[in-house]
TrEMBL record:
Subcellular localization: Cell membrane
Keywords annotated in UniProt: ATP-binding, Cell membrane, Kinase, Lipid biosynthesis, Lipid metabolism, Magnesium, Membrane, Metal-binding, Nucleotide-binding, Phospholipid biosynthesis, Phospholipid metabolism, Transferase, Transmembrane, Transmembrane helix
Lineage: Bacteria, Bacillati, Bacillota, Bacilli, Bacillales
Entry annotation: catalytic residues: 63 (proton acceptor)
Molecular-function GO term, any one: kinase activity
PROSITE patterns assigned to the protein according to its UniProt record, in alphabetical order: DAGK_PROKAR
Organism, scientific name: Paenibacillus baekrokdamisoli
Protein name, as recorded: Uncharacterized protein
Cofactor(s) in the UniProt record: Mg(2+)
GO BP, one annotated term: phospholipid biosynthetic process
Superkingdom: Bacteria
Amino acid sequence: MRKFVQSMGLAWSGISLALRTEAHMRIHLTAALIVTTTGLLLGLNRYEWTALVITMALVIGAELLNTAIENVVDLVSPERHPLAKAAKDTAAGGVLVTAMAAVIVGLLVFGPHLVAIFR
Ligand SMILES: Nc1ncnc2c1ncn2[C@@H]1O[C@H](COP(=O)(O)OP(=O)(O)OP(=O)(O)O)[C@@H](O)[C@H]1O
């Protein structure tokens, strides 16, 4: 149990480090806070929340993995290398895919609520 708590602490310190050092992480977190606040104001149902929570976790999780890959690449290949470029660009592509999916999920969830409000 102590080991589990210790591992959780290290994982949280990784998230906190990424938040302090990665501008993109702060952008994703801000977007998640805006989405959560808007969802609370609109009174979303449990299915809509499920879609949003999974999507936000995917984007933030992908950004954390992207940051981890960037750090490892910088550690093992401080000099320019085509494989270092491939690794970083592919990892960034992973984040882009989740971000595009998040935009689509956001439109599907919030679209009907906003149409109903402004009609
Ligand atoms: N060692 C390297 N060898 C070859 N290309 C690299 C290398 N490091 C970075 N690059 C290229 O430069 C781009 C930008 O790299 P950088 O390390 O600045 O990360 P980033 O994508 O700007 O991430 P962040 O803004 O989160 O730090 C990479 O996507 C890659 O195309």
